[in-house]
Amino acid sequence: MTAEAAVKYVTEIPEEEVSRVSEWINSEEYKEKNFARQALVINPAHACQPLGAELAAHGFEGTLPFVHGSQGCASYYRSTFNRHFREPAPAVSDSMTEDGAVFGGQNNLHEGLENAYTIYKPKMMAIFTSCMPEVIGDDLTAFIKNARNKGIVPQDYPLPYANTPSFNGSHVHGYDAMLLSILQTLTEGKKIEGRCTGKLNLIAGFDANTGNYREYKRILKEIGIPSTLLADISESFDSPLDGTYRAYPGGTPLEDAADSVNGKVTLTVAPYASAKTFNWIKDNFSGKHISMPTPFGVEKTDQLLMTLAREFGKPIPESLKAERGRAVDAMTDAHQYIHGKKFALYGDPDYLIGYVTFLLEMGARPYHILCSKGTKKLEKELQALLDGSPYGAGCKIYINKDLWHMRSLLMTDPVDAVIGDTHGKFMARDAKVPLFRFGFPIFDRVNLHRMPLIGYQGAINMLTTICNKFIDIRDETCDDRNFEMMR
Ligand code: SF4
User: Fold this and answer.
1) Is it the case that residue 215 has pLDDT exceeding 90?
2) H or E element: which one contains 289?
3) Between the N and C ends of the chain, which has fewer C-beta atoms within 10 Å?
4) Residue 12 gets which letter from DSSP?
5) Whole-number Å distance between alpha carbons of 125 and 123
6) pLDDT at residue 213 tops 90
7) CA geometry: angle 460, 55, 421, nearest 5 deg
């Protein structure tokens, strides 16, 4: 008897039933049931809070992310970053198990801190929580104070910590909470009356595109603005392969982060991913505080450059003006391939605003816009963008819906393409449309995190990727007589 023959299926489903259900889930009737769903989330387009906290921690010099909670959770965050960046993501966990869940995780935290401090010699450990210690109500403030009093870590050793309960919020909120705590810790007592570093503090938010960080730094250098990029992951997750392993490559120097409290201007280009941090900065940092959208597309990049030029009294250099001209030229050359096309979009709030801005500039239609952890404020802002363009007419926003909802939308009200992350590949395949992977995480393509999406160069990159794919599809599907050299 073969092994296959020995398998006894518990339930036999006739092929006709499989095809009936396969067709039914593409129907209007199913969509209505799907949208009536209340108590179940299927394939949400976000990760949990601690994952975001870990990204913020990786953005600082010599910093070891420390997960207070379950080891499995820590592995999930690390493996997500490993797969997205194809780089190591060194982080530790104090591995709470059943006894920690019953008696509290203080012993785990103390032992973990002692080991990590001794073995990995980080300059700072950034502590954040997984679900388990949040459910049982572990008191991080007291645990950390006790650790210092017991001499596990020196009294003045920087140990920022954030409560990052995953049953509330998303990776974006965890990023914000961790960044806030890191800045509170590093800047404590560093504000000096009358001192101004003359620098810009830039907050990029939860952005897992290392190319974007490099692009910000390049633009600032072109204009001649001294800057501190807070939570700079450009080296942490994109360091050169030179034969030497470094546990903590790159990151914002701790001294610069501490002195950021005396900055000339603090600018966030991620209002949704740094809302709490920015509110605190407004009350505590010297200088001006400015919040603006992530610079996707030409108009928002213009806004960024003009703001920087105004605040630092610098002219916009010819090189950037020329870059703008090239972006406009590239958009003009390519618009015929994207104009009027319908897109389905999902992702983080700051990125969604960026996608919508870019598509409307190209005369494309951001037709289904979905955020699985969004707010009324986000909905209003997206709606205002749609209302401000003729291409926004008839486009719809879905807040706190998931990718299974999005699948129903694709099957009942089709689009030409999807923009999102790797998790959308199944529905895009079912809907037989391309998926443009601009978000996070991207597991199934290489090097996309190195391709900037922000600024004029980012606009060129996005439209090149999109338009060439549409041209590929035309080449692959057209009749022989329409298979042209020129497209
Ligand atoms: S949702 Fe909670 S249990 Fe799941 S990986 Fe995140 S922290 Fe761990």
Assistant:
1) yes
2) strand 288-291
3) N
4) -
5) 7
6) yes
7) 45
Residue nearest to atom 8 of ligand 1 (CA): 73
Reported as a pLDDT band with limits 50, 70 and 90, residue 2 is low
C-alpha neighbours within 13 Å on the C-beta side of residue 283: 6
Whether the predicted pLDDT of 1 surpasses 60: no
Regarding beta strands 200-203 and 161-162, do their DSSP bridges make them parallel or antiparallel, or are they unpaired?
unpaired
Closest ligand 1 atom to residue 76 Cα is: 5
Q: Is the CB of residue 52 less than 8 Å from the CB of residue 116?
A: no
Q: Please identify, in words, the CATH class of the domain defined by 323-480.
A: alpha beta
Are the beta carbons of 289 and 281 closer than 8 angstroms? yes
Q: Assign domain 49-187 to its CATH superfamily.
A: Nitrogenase molybdenum iron protein domain (3.40.50.1980)
Q: Look up residue 292 and give its amino acid.
A: M
The whole-number average pLDDT for the span 348-372 is 98
Q: Which residues of the chain does CATH 3.40.50.1980 include?
A: 49-187, 200-319, 323-480
What is the DSSP secondary structure assignment for residue 437, as one 8-state letter?
Answer: E
CA of 200 to the centre of ligand 1 (A): 35
CB neighbour list of residue 18: distance below 8 Å, 6 or more residues apart = none
What kind and span of H or E run contains 346?
strand 342-346
Q: Which residue shows structure tokens 């974006």?
A: 172
Mean pLDDT of 177-203: 98
- Superfamily grouping for domain 200-319: Nitrogenase molybdenum iron protein domain (3.40.50.1980)
**131 CB less than 6 Å from ligand 1?**
yes
Chain CA centroid to CA 287, Å: 27
pLDDT, tens digit, for every residue of 268-314? 999 999 999 999 999 999 999 999 999 999 999 999 999 999 999 99
From ligand 1's centre to the CA of 274, what distance in Å?
A: 22
Q: How far apart are CA 347 and CA 71, in angstroms?
A: 27
For the question of whether the overall pTM of this predicted structure is more than 0.90, the answer is yes
Q: Which two tokens stand for residue 328?
A: 């406009």
- Of 134, 136, 166, 170, the one to substitute when testing ligand 1's pocket (max ligand atoms within 8 A of C-beta) is 166
Whole-angstrom Cα distance, residue 241 to residue 383? 45
pLDDT in tens, 80-132: 999 999 999 999 999 999 999 999 999 999 999 999 999 999 999 999 999 99
130 burial via Cβ count (<10 Å: 0-12, 13-18, 19+) = buried
- Torsion 476-478-480-481 (CA) sign: negative
> CA 364, CA 383: separation in Å to the nearest integer?
16
Through-space distance between the first and last CA atoms of the chain, rounded to whole angstroms: 58
Give the closest residue to 100 by CA, choosing from 63, 130, 64, 78: 130
Three-class SS state of 47:
coil
Pocket test for ligand 1, best of 71, 93, 130, 175 (most atoms within 8 A of CB): 130
For residue 258, how many other CB atoms are within 10 A of its CB?
19
